[in-house]
Design a protein that fits this description.
Oligomer: homohexamer
Shape of chain A: globular
Strand order of the largest sheet of chain A: 1-4-7-10-13
Number of domains of chain A: 2
CATH topology of the largest domain in chain A: serine acetyltransferase, domain 1
CATH superfamily of the largest domain in chain A: serine acetyltransferase, domain 1
Radius of gyration of chain A: 23 Å
Strand content of chain A: 5-15%
CATH architecture of the largest domain in chain A: Orthogonal Bundle
Chain lengths: 294, 294, 294, 294, 294, 294
Amino acid sequence: MKNKNYASDIKTVIDELTGLCPTENMFHPNKEGEPFPSRAIMKDSIKLTRSILFPGFFGNASVNKTTLPYHIGVNVEKLFTMLWEQVYAGLCFDCKEEDIDLEAKREKAFTITLSFVKQLPRIKEVLRTDVEAMYKMDPAAKSYGEIIISYPGLRAITNYRIAHELHKLQTPIIPRIITEMAHAETGIDIHPGARIGESFAIDHGTGVVIGETCIIGNNVRIYQGVTLGAKSFPVDENNIPIKGIDRHPIIKDNVIIYASATILGRIIIGENAVIGGNTWITEDVQPNEKVFIK
Amino acid sequence: MKNKNYASDIKTVIDELTGLCPTENMFHPNKEGEPFPSRAIMKDSIKLTRSILFPGFFGNASVNKTTLPYHIGVNVEKLFTMLWEQVYAGLCFDCKEEDIDLEAKREKAFTITLSFVKQLPRIKEVLRTDVEAMYKMDPAAKSYGEIIISYPGLRAITNYRIAHELHKLQTPIIPRIITEMAHAETGIDIHPGARIGESFAIDHGTGVVIGETCIIGNNVRIYQGVTLGAKSFPVDENNIPIKGIDRHPIIKDNVIIYASATILGRIIIGENAVIGGNTWITEDVQPNEKVFIK
Amino acid sequence: MKNKNYASDIKTVIDELTGLCPTENMFHPNKEGEPFPSRAIMKDSIKLTRSILFPGFFGNASVNKTTLPYHIGVNVEKLFTMLWEQVYAGLCFDCKEEDIDLEAKREKAFTITLSFVKQLPRIKEVLRTDVEAMYKMDPAAKSYGEIIISYPGLRAITNYRIAHELHKLQTPIIPRIITEMAHAETGIDIHPGARIGESFAIDHGTGVVIGETCIIGNNVRIYQGVTLGAKSFPVDENNIPIKGIDRHPIIKDNVIIYASATILGRIIIGENAVIGGNTWITEDVQPNEKVFIK
Amino acid sequence: MKNKNYASDIKTVIDELTGLCPTENMFHPNKEGEPFPSRAIMKDSIKLTRSILFPGFFGNASVNKTTLPYHIGVNVEKLFTMLWEQVYAGLCFDCKEEDIDLEAKREKAFTITLSFVKQLPRIKEVLRTDVEAMYKMDPAAKSYGEIIISYPGLRAITNYRIAHELHKLQTPIIPRIITEMAHAETGIDIHPGARIGESFAIDHGTGVVIGETCIIGNNVRIYQGVTLGAKSFPVDENNIPIKGIDRHPIIKDNVIIYASATILGRIIIGENAVIGGNTWITEDVQPNEKVFIK
Amino acid sequence: MKNKNYASDIKTVIDELTGLCPTENMFHPNKEGEPFPSRAIMKDSIKLTRSILFPGFFGNASVNKTTLPYHIGVNVEKLFTMLWEQVYAGLCFDCKEEDIDLEAKREKAFTITLSFVKQLPRIKEVLRTDVEAMYKMDPAAKSYGEIIISYPGLRAITNYRIAHELHKLQTPIIPRIITEMAHAETGIDIHPGARIGESFAIDHGTGVVIGETCIIGNNVRIYQGVTLGAKSFPVDENNIPIKGIDRHPIIKDNVIIYASATILGRIIIGENAVIGGNTWITEDVQPNEKVFIK
Amino acid sequence: MKNKNYASDIKTVIDELTGLCPTENMFHPNKEGEPFPSRAIMKDSIKLTRSILFPGFFGNASVNKTTLPYHIGVNVEKLFTMLWEQVYAGLCFDCKEEDIDLEAKREKAFTITLSFVKQLPRIKEVLRTDVEAMYKMDPAAKSYGEIIISYPGLRAITNYRIAHELHKLQTPIIPRIITEMAHAETGIDIHPGARIGESFAIDHGTGVVIGETCIIGNNVRIYQGVTLGAKSFPVDENNIPIKGIDRHPIIKDNVIIYASATILGRIIIGENAVIGGNTWITEDVQPNEKVFIK
């Protein structure tokens, strides 16, 4: 095999690629010692959180009543340490080279992580209502345990509830990575900014999209393929969308939305409404109304 | 960095979380030595099964005609051992602390696993018809080999056929984990309880849902986004759905169902019928009928 | 536990399975020393490519301006080596036992891989336009960096652009594995044969299907659940679909296609057209036309 | 490459090797479900024990005063589970096919493991005296911590003290594996059957051999290359050594033995004796005597 | 933290190191596609060989009489593939850039590996005599099984016997790596060129050295710290030792050599001789003679 | 299986162990965020250093003349990052809780690591003289390459030379871990404080001990089992050895020391002296003198 130009060809490619790197925003140069968000560690953090919230169901440990506090203790502390580093990485993620103060960011990350960890008992309580809701929604569910270890809906909602707490504490990027991890696994895409009440249930779930400014009440049920999206959004003079405008639906308590319904814009779906499958909804729906495809 | 309350804050969280654990069904205490279903080992079992069913295509082994029986031999035995443990874990999964007899469950798991392994040749033969059907369904398919190693439809059907055998043998939870693994990878959600004939083909597949009591004939073709679901289900006096009622469609031989069709309830789609994309079907379709969106 | 027939039962299964293996195309016997495509190595190759295209965002390295050329250099060379082996495996994948010339295939793989690597700078430039397009499409996007590390749309498009280059160089099977890897992660199924222009954006993306013979212009935006599929295809006298016939849509510049639209057949969607969600399109759409569900 | 006989050659080797297997004691056929001792799990068990005995020095955990009980709790329980399985495997190791009662062996393993775990506090206390003795023996030692994390002598003694407890509880094979693991790492070969007092110190240690029936008092110091061996041993009528006869030295309190001394046979080295390096000792040494090479 | 010169300092170091690389023989430039010996793969190959030679004792497989041939079959084939690559790497190791013919080396490696594999049954038979000899040598040995899974002497002899076969087939470097792996684990350093008869036993073994041109008869026993070395060696005009001259001892049948004896030069230790511990032997020893330190 | 007291027994053990932990110096409580030396990362750092010093021989990379600078560049930077963290951990290792200033220690670690990295070219040059010396010492050595990849002597000397640089920069604990890693692998125990000249060669090496205050000239050769140790050492009023006193031998240029010689105390072995095997030396040896056992 004779490959005369191989080495020089490769060298040319390397030089070209290096030359392209200053291209705006396609290269993330590391600032001195700054950490970078790690998908692998986020994955482990979520696994650890699941083993804290649902002890015995996750984490490979033979936990029992006597040893439960030891496991919770070790896992909470381990989670704190892992998450602190990731939140710290998140805080560094988009900052400019000039204004970086690593020590200050590390302290801020400490405060955020501690606040988050203190919310874990509350997250556990809300997730209990979600498990119950999913059990009531699906005749195929044999037990709460089956839902906890195998239902993608619960998996997506768990990630969302974790991510939403971090979002409320103004952690950059990390919440989005957490919900995207669930999106990849389940096909359910819930933006961490959405606000969702108790007893929330999703069945099957592939293709569900819940946008950033959605507000969802208690006891809402959603099936696969449902979109709660924006209808349109204003752009600025550079044709860049204006951030932070309310543009997704408000879903009131006890609403049921069947498969592949598409609900768009800042509209209100009233209490106890039922939205049929494959529908296309861009206007308010009254309380107790039932909307089906004709 | 001064964090006076850190240790005590963490301790409070640990105590709170421990205190919440008796909450009904959110904690799975390990009974003496009882195994727990392992997603990682189930994943390896499925990989191993694929290397048994499609030798040379999976399993990284340089198997050839001379060494084929050695590979099948080692892999079948390894699969038996791995699966035995998981079936055993499945049998322990929901049982009450009072009535657990580990040795009896281990023997029952042995019997189930042996029965399952004896079905492997039949599973292989049915899967061959599925591969052929998928080859005939897709002009983009260059060879059987391409389907075997890269088509998500075949992946989902393989997991389903394995899970369905274990479901028929009344293995708890494990079949569901197997189909959910395929669901996570492919976006195709087939309940292990569904009954599906030969030469079954799914193309693309993301968003497909096939419910627990579906009955599907031979030579049926399905595209992405198709739901074969329940329209409604009766609940008992506690508002809990009644289990085990037939509530999903019956699809007869040679039916084709195009993308995003939604077919709900215990209805019958007759032989040779064609269901167009994005349709919403809640009533019987006659044999040879073609239903399209207008 | 008494299991008299266990060993002989297992032996029977092994013999049966071995006996079934000559079954046409369900067994891939290894030819002397021939490599087989490896999903694990393909996965690592894609990760490596991402760390070359978006340095600092992927690859766990603390790369900075001084060390950038070293990292690009090492990674390009590592990618070349890994990919060469996989392209070689792809060339061996479907060939017959009689006509195999491993050394010739290895040389051809060298040429293909070198050609591919030389395209990396161009791929990087096109992906920059895709990142920009996605930033402009989504009010929830906080920065280019967020899109690069967390948006499934970009992940799917990156895999597609890599796979498409290899497809153009007539690499068998490998491009399909690459796009299926993205399909599994994101629910977005783009065939490597499709031709797609610059500034292509997909949001959310679960359920998107883009067929083998699609042609997509510049600056096109697509939402979740959109199918660009075939309406029907001719079969030969054995009922096998005829390969390579143009059967998917042509989408012109600046088109927007909203969630769950289904567009089928070799039709043309004209420039600046807007296709509403949940629509079913099987005929040409004129430039600037807007098609919505009624 | 033409390799006509390759497949048949390999097949011949396989058949020959299989045919040789009934050879007495060179093949260990697995009895139904019986576990086999695992070097990897033993290694993890020893690591875990070290993290229990020297918390914060081993185990990668950021343990502090508040979280210490959680870590000890989780680790003791994990150790119990891992060791139980290994002790069980040890009990099965040499038993005949006829008389195997797996359930009885599993219970016996439970009892042994529990007895062992109850000795952990006492093992910790004795090891503290060993660390102190090593600190006093070596001017190069900067702190107790340095000894704990880097001295091979302590590593070998720790493994010995663990193995000796299991040996006293009549666990087959496992204690030997534990001391051989230390032998491989440190070159210090202490038989688990030896009896060794408190404040035992070994410096450097490579080549040290301490035989099965040695008895060593308190406060003994040993350097590299020292053998405490047998001089000869009686054999039975089949020329097989008779097991269990006292044949190794007795070393009294406060003895120092310098590098490469060889001490053989059931002799007594009296209190406070000093044995010089490279000596060859086969007779009793009086208390307070100093023996050096001339 | 202000580190102005960091980047330029590092760059200087990189340039200096790069500049030093042409230094004769301290840099191994990769020739096109040439493999390099891998310690990790050699380690796996040795593990695999042990599982072939002592089935059930190594390899984590639950092998029994029925499944034995499958395991041997798969493992022999896997070993062949792994070793072929390593032997090939060995053949490339020292060759000059000008004369490299990779394809020819690959074929030569094939022939060597096949010859080696055909010797496996004979290696197994000799190792059986070694296990027996070690059992007869040590009163502490409870069973053949204990020797097989835990005695470092057997581990070193196994590696030696494998390496010696490859050495006889003129494989470069690989045999040395194999014996050095045993040296690292056991402290027993046997050169692959030494010739050693049946029923060879080493007890404890740390510090044993057996030189390249040693010839050892049948039924020889050796203890820890024994050196069978060269006394001196001639050098050429560049002060480089002349290779391949016989310079190590010849040990006849039934000799016993006790701990730390040093035997140097091409001398003969006659049949049935006994060499005492810590002795220094540089002249022939007569048959049946006993040499002890005075 | 009835195990009434199991849980309470385990709990008692946990409480006892926790209670013992305040025991002086047997528990290392983590101070806020402080890193701890990691054996695994040190191992990787040493591997990385070897791939920098001997490119192409270590590190699995297919480095060639064109790509050499990229590999050196990436590896030097990676080493800097890994080592910085470990040096930082070393600086924290023994410090008291009161006086810890993590940020200052991190900066000091930066300075030490940078100074170390700047020494790499010099270390490479000295190691070249060691490789040459070993090649000249051993008739069995076929090439420099064989020494570089398989000789334990070179491995131990490489670790020593790295550790000694860090020792000179007053890094706590880390240098000791590095030499102990070599000790475990090779049985050669060189204290990082020893001072050793160029062209240093060790053959076989198991059992070699070189003490903290040794001074060794250029061109010295040492065989297995050689001890360069202390004869005695003064203790303070608490019976603790006084640190830092010169107590090991000085070996002048061109000395050869044969197997198992023991040389003790602050004595001088003069230039060109030859020390025979198994000798016991506690007094000065004159230049050119030859000392052999009688």
